[in-house]
Amino acid sequence: MKKNYTTSTANYTSLVDNYVLSIAGHDPTGGAGITSDLKTFEAHGFYGLSVCTTITVQNDTNFKQSIWTNLDIILSQIETLFERFHIPVVKIGIVENWITLSQILDKLHELNPKIKVVLDPVFKTSSGFDFHYNENQEILDKIWKQCFIITPNYDEIQSLYPDLNISKTIEHISKFTKIYLKGGHRSDLKGWDELYYDKTSAIEIFPIYKTVYQKHGSGCVLSSSLACNIALNYPIKDAAINTKIYIETYLRSSKGLLGTHQMVVAGV
Ligand SMILES: Nc1ncnc2c1ncn2[C@@H]1O[C@H](COP(=O)(O)OP(=O)(O)OP(=O)(O)O)[C@@H](O)[C@H]1O
Ligand SMILES: Cc1ncc(CO)c(N)n1
Question: For residue 191, how far is its CA from the centre of ligand 1 (angstroms)?
Answer without folding.
Answer: 6
